[in-house]
Design brief:
Largest sheet: 6 strands, mixed
CATH class of the largest domain: Mainly Beta
Distance between the termini: 38 Å
Helix content: under 10%
CATH topology of the largest domain: Immunoglobulin-like
Strand content: 35-45%
Shape: globular
CATH architecture of the largest domain: Sandwich
Length: 279
């Protein structure tokens, strides 16, 4: 599991941001583009190009941030970022869900439950490839989860745990020879590591992974990583698909390094939903 990330901002910079459709035809229906302006008059940097750094997160994920962005224009402490090729994210798809608020009432995503004397096992229904399916909107939590139970009064200390088994069936029930498959979710810490890498079961023709989870409602997705990619960049392309219409949340972080300082200071933060694209 990955550690949680906490950021603390001393708001000195203001940010105006829009989510747009990419101008590049090859990405116009699968990616989302950000255009934003930053006013750094509050810190008045002597050299904004060196002292100001930008980090952009999609759905608060730290596994695929955009960094090292350079402004297209810089005039009077105002930095404008509108490079169509640099500030784009694969849009992904709405997140899958598992309703585990009750281990007795089995929700639509639960195939069966084994009730042991000392433990409970929940087997979710097999998940298939969605990359070739048309986009379908439904309300999700962008990969997050909440602890909740319908079987008691206080989920803080009355919820139960279970070992939950996830499985993904690839096309033709065959493993990818050059890719690893990971389960991506905030309940795992949002990272890609040995605990989130799925193992292919040749007998059943599917990838499998298990996690100990508390009763609640969980969002998750499956991603692939090319083994030859040194950056280990996750992709929705072969498992979930990418759709311009997908609802995503974006967060822009503005960092400033003062002269002689030993660390960057977070001086601005702004969030926007891609739903603004269609308003």
């Amino acid at each position: 599991m990955n550690e949680k990330t906490l950021v603390v901002s001393d708001a000195k910079a203001t940010i105006g941001v829009q989510v747009l459709q990419p101008l590049n035809f090859d990405m116009a229906h699968t990616h989302q583009r950000l255009l934003f302006k930053v006013n750094v008059a509050g810190v008045n940097p002597a050299n904004a190009l060196d002292q100001i750094k930008v980090v952009i997160l999609q759905n608060y994920r730290w596994d695929n941030p955009l960094r090292d962005l350079k402004p297209t224009f810089y005039v009077n402490n105002s930095l404008e970022y509108n490079n169509d090729n640099d500030i784009v994210f694969p849009a992904g798809n709405e997140w899958r869900w598992a309703d585990l608020q009750s281990f007795r009432y089995q929700s639509d995503r639960v195939q069966n439950v084994n009730y042991g004397k000392t433990s409970t096992e929940v087997f979710l229904r097999p998940d298939g490839d969605r990359s070739r399916q048309p986009y379908l909107f439904f309300k999700d939590y962008d990969g997050f989860y909440f602890i909740q139970t319908t079987e008691s009064l206080n989920p803080a200390y009355q919820t139960d745990y279970a070992t939950v088994h996830f499985n993904f069936t690839p096309p033709d029930h065959a493993p990818w020879p050059d890719k690893d498959v990971y389960l991506l979710a905030q309940f795992t810490g949002g990272g890609l590591n040995d605990s989130t890498r799925m193992v292919f079961n040749a007998e059943k023709g599917r990838y499998e992974a298990s996690f100990l989870l508390k009763q609640g409602y969980y969002n998750y997705a499956y991603v692939t990583v090319d083994r030859s990619d040194p950056a280990r960049k996750p992709s929705f392309e072969f498992t979930e698909g990418n759709h311009l219409e997908t609802e995503n949340g974006y967060t822009i972080l503005i960092y400033y390094r003062a002269p002689g300082a030993r660390a960057d200071e977070l001086v601005g933060i702004s969030s926007v939903s891609s739903l603004n694209l269609f308003r």
